[in-house]
Amino acid sequence: MSLCCTPGGNGLLSPAEQRGLRRQLLLAICAVGLLLLAAYWQFAVDNGSALAQWLTAAAALLMAGPALRAAWHSLQHPDLHGMTDLLVALAIIGAWASGDLLSAALLPILMVLGHVLEERSLLGSQEAIQALSTLTRSRSRRLLADGSYEDIDNSQLRSGDCVEVRPGDRIPADGMVRQGHSSLDTSAITGESLPQDVTSGSQVYAGAVNLQGLLQVEISQVGEQSALGRITALMREAEMAKPPITRLVEGHAGAYLGLVLALAALCWFISRDTQAMLAVLVAACPCALVLATPAAAVAGVAVAARHGILIRGTAFLEELADVSALVIDKTGTLTSGQLSLQRVEVLDAGPGPDIQLLAASLGASSSHPVSRALATLAGTQPLLPLTAVQEMAGMGLQANTAWGPAVLGRPALLQQMGISHLPPARGAASLVGLALDGRLLAWFHLADTPRPEAAEAMQQLRQLGLQRQLLLTGDHAAAAEPLAQALGIERVVAQVLPAGKLAAVQAEISAGYRPLVVGDGINDSLALKAGAVGIAMGAQAADIAVAAADVVLISKDLRRLATAIRLSRQCRRTLSLNVALGLGWTALLTLLAALGLLGSAGVLLAALLHNLSSLLVMANAGRLLRFQDRLPALVTPPSTS
């Protein structure tokens, strides 16, 4: 069984593979405990060297079994990961041959930890696909011919069925509203920040959340034909098209193994010196070379976690260093995802109540997101008394006041109520009018506000070389373009569906760029998977986006994008130096051993010297732990009113 438990087929780790991985981790923990006891006995107890050696040997034996079994399995079923197992086995055999029990124990311990980290990158794509398939796996109320309802699993729905969707429920499948009116939260599906108001005849999609009224939906597309089903299929294609990450050490493992064996054999044939041959094997044990990647990667992952950045696979540390373009979502990523008042355009300030207080009083009578945003204008003031409040779902509401009938709603509602008006140029995501006694008093401009750190974060990314920046959003251009201009993003593609986002990312790759893709919704999952590196805003991201991403930002601070890139580039420099140390030191030591310049005690000297290279590699990797990227406190700009 390989030290690297690779999932087979299209599924996650089988129960047997999970048990095997837990067993390896348990053995590694036990071996570490034995080594700590050995160190204590060696340095704290008089005449404890013999027992310390026995404890070290026990730790080495404990780890030797799985490592040698993995090497044997790799010989029978050779692959890229198997080459690493063979290298590790060669190092262990060489260490045992020289009596270097400490290296024989430490090497497989570190490799097990490295493979556990690699396992997360292998499972990430399958978790993403599984998260999509379970997103709508719940139950629905299906309408029967006699007018009653039955509770069924969503998988039993068929085209033509009619289901009841209550407030708070998800739409179970694509369909059309047959009866009722409500507002739907479609931000995770389409990326549009404003709720979608639906009524009889409106098209709805699986995964959207019903915010208000009771709906009857006639199902039109289920399973793989639904919007979510198509996203799942496209994600599988994106996963297959994503190029594998080539690891330097594994890529040259086969040639290195053959070279070492040939050199050892040549040394023995020429000199007939068994000690020199063993010295070559020990000197060529690629401990430092094999440790170069996991040592730097483990340190990098630990430092990233300390900064609120979770990296799903160590290979993405290297990929982050090479990104050259940015593709970023708007709603919930660059913005807060909540509506706020941008501007009040007063048209009639005649006698009557305070305009903002009147709007807040009307807004407090509704649970619609636009109304909730206006309701905050009252502050601590008492609301105005209203009577005969009537809400027109998706349009607005009207009520009687002491100054006459008041209306708060969309321009279409004002026109329907016979209130003459000329709508201003639409510069915000949502435009709401307030009328009193037939007079239009004011327009309220609302929009999804940008995060306070967004401009600084985009500027930092440009300074790091990501001058090419693209804003992709399912929202309207009127909402996206002003935001992009304020943040210095030159290119905007608005009202784009998930497949369109995927196509845009693939176009960036075809143009020769390596895009960093940042998003938080279901509609971003395809793009996250297709990019060179996908980063999800994990604090509020949809489960599918988190599972599809290579990196997850636990912090809401967008400036951590630059932190991740800076850390990645520092890891790249550390890794390059580690590989140079490992290769250079091993090559020099092997040459000295082959020439017989290590003397009669060549095996022991080679063991000591190659252990020194491992210490140098570990020490160099440890320098990463000093990485700090402190962010200054955010100054939240005052809201416009």
UniProtKB/TrEMBL annotation:
This protein's GO CC annotations: plasma membrane
Entry keyword Transmembrane: yes
Enzymatic reactions: Zn(2+)(in) + ATP + H2O = Zn(2+)(out) + ADP + phosphate + H(+)
UniProt GO molecular function: ATP binding; ATP hydrolysis activity; cadmium ion transmembrane transporter activity; metal ion binding; P-type zinc transporter activity
Keywords: ATP-binding, Cell membrane, Membrane, Metal-binding, Nucleotide-binding, Transmembrane, Transmembrane helix
Annotated InterPro entries: ATPase_P-typ_cyto_dom_N (IPR023299), ATPase_P-typ_P_site (IPR018303), ATPase_P-typ_TM_dom_sf (IPR023298), ATPase_P-typ_transduc_dom_A_sf (IPR008250), ATPase_P-type_domA (IPR059000), Cation_Transport_ATPase_IB (IPR051014), HAD-like_sf (IPR036412), HAD_sf (IPR023214)
Residue span(s) of domain P-type ATPase A: 138-235
Locations listed in the record: Cell membrane; Membrane
UniProt-recorded name of the protein: P-type Zn(2+) transporter
Gene: cadA
